[in-house]
Structure formats: C-alpha cells, structure tokens
C-alpha cells in the first residue's frame, strides 16, 4: 500500500513589515492629492515643506488626520518660542497621557479580565461591566493618544483641530459620528460620501453610500467580526435617522 505523506512547502512567503502609521501616511497623501486635483489647495513645490507635512511625527501613530490646508500656512511661517503656547501644549499632552495611563489602562484591565471568563461563569452583571469598561477604554485610549499628539504639536507651534468632542454625550448616532474621531469622519465625508453622491441621490443610493462609508470606516478600525457587527449597527441607526428626517420634512 502506498501512503501519502504531507509535503511541506519549500517556498515560504516572506513576512511583510509595514511602517508605523502607514494608514495616516496614506490618508494624508490622498487628501493632499485630491485637494490639489480639485484646486482647493496649491501645489507645494518645496520638498522640505511637503515632507514635513507627511512626516510630522506627533500624529503619525494614532492621528488625528491632518488636512494640508489646515497646516500649510503654519508650516512655512517663522515661529518664535512662546512660553504660554508651549505650556498649553504640555497641559494637553499630560491630559492625554492621563487619559491613556490612568483611565484607559485601568478600565481596560477590568474589561480584559471579564472577557477571559468562561461562558458558564459570565452572568448579566459581568457582561454589562465588561461592555461599559471596554467602551470607556476605547474612548479614553483613542482620545488620549489624540490629545497627546495635539499637545505635542502645540509645543512646536503647530495647531491641530480637536479630534474628539465628548461623543458619548451625543443624542443620536449621526451626532455621535460628528463627535467621534472627527478628522476620520470628515475625511470619509469629504472624499468618499460626497463623491458617491451623498444624500443628493435616490434613497437606495443614500443607504448604499452610508453602508460603503461605514464598512470602510469599520475596516480601518480593525478587520474583525466585531467591527463588521459594529458597522451593521451604525449603518442601520443612520438609515433610521435618515428616515426620521424625511418624515419630519414631509410632515
């Protein structure tokens, strides 16, 4: 009898090491190219200035996504050291660091402990505690990094726009997205949603546009089933909100 032995592959696919902050590099590059194409900004011929925009380190790892027209003038102007502005930047950086280290890491440890519990030991109270602590961890972790980036840039005399505006106090899902990761939401709105037709098309196309935007936004946050479910929930809530607006306008 002939027995078949498994054959190990001879050629191994090399592991690809992606550079840190590649998503933010990509978003910055796309926004600059699209704005130049739309003639919303002028071409920057100075490679040093353009390179500084792409590689300015405070926002490379965790944002915010900085549009070129928001910082173009700041990159070329002569800056003087101002003690007050530097102090404001330090305060912002410390605030972000406190969010990350004191709050996000603390509630994150609670969430991690609950998420590792066996299913038979997970009751309703533990599930709710895990849900709330994980929700707080995501916000304080992400907004903490953004605050650190904004504060650090402020120390160098560069002002970034705020990236989070108390999103958990929102009264609707649409308002939430206007307050959550503002730079990312604005990027998808200006370069994708409006380009697809926004809400100026048929009702079906509006729903398709919303689904496309939320799907890509969810994949940007993480390629997992958790984010797919999150995208589905966000899309359905936005569609419900759109329907409510149509009803209000009609009647």
Question: Topology, please?
Answer:
Elements: H1 22-37, H2 47-55, H3 68-76, H4 83-115, H5 124-155, H6 173-179, H7 182-193, H8 203-221, H9 225-250
Helix pairs in contact: 4-5, 7-8, 8-9
The main pleated sheet reads as:
none
**Average pLDDT rating:** 83
How is the quaternary structure best described? single chain
Q: Could you list the spans in which at least 5 consecutive residues all have pLDDT below 50?
A: 246-251
Q: C-alpha Rg, in Å?
A: 22 Å
Q: How many structurally independent domains?
A: 3
The SSE order reads HHHHHHHHH
* Strand content bin: under 5%
* Ends apart, CA distance between termini: 81 Å
* Number of separate strands: 0
**Global morphology:** globular
Helix content: 55-70%
Q: What's the number of helices?
A: 9
Structural class: mainly alpha
Keywords:
disordered C terminus, mainly alpha, 3 domains, 65% helix, 0% strand, 251 residues
């Amino acid at each position: 009898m002939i027995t078949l032995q498994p054959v190990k592959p001879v050629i191994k696919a090399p592991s690809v090491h992606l550079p840190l902050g590649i998503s933010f590099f990509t978003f910055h590059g796309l926004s600059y190219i699209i704005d130049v194409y739309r003639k919303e900004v002028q071409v920057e011929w100075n490679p040093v200035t353009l390179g500084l925009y792409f590689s300015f380190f405070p926002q490379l790892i965790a944002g915010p996504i900085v549009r070129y027209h928001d910082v173009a003038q700041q990159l070329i102007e002569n800056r003087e050291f101002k003690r007050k502005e530097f102090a404001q930047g330090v305060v912002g950086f410390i605030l972000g660091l406190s969010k990350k280290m004191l709050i996000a890491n603390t509630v994150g440890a609670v969430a991690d402990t609950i998420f590792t519990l066996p299913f038979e030991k997970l009751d309703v109270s533990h599930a709710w505690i895990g849900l709330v602590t994980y929700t707080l961890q995501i916000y304080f972790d992400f907004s903490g990094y953004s605050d650190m980036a904004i504060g650090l840039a402020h120390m160098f005399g560069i002002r970034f726009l705020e990236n989070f505006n108390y999103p958990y106090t929102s009264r609707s899902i649409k308002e939430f997205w206007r307050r959550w990761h503002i730079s990312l939401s604005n990027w998808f709105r200006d370069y994708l949603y409006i380009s697809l037709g926004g809400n100026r098309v048929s009702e079906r196309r509006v729903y398709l546009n919303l689904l496309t935007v939320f799907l890509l936004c969810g994949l940007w946050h993480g390629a997992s089933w958790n984010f797919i479910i999150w995208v589905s929930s966000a899309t359905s809530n936005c569609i419900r909100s759109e329907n409510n607006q149509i009803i209000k306008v009609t009647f």
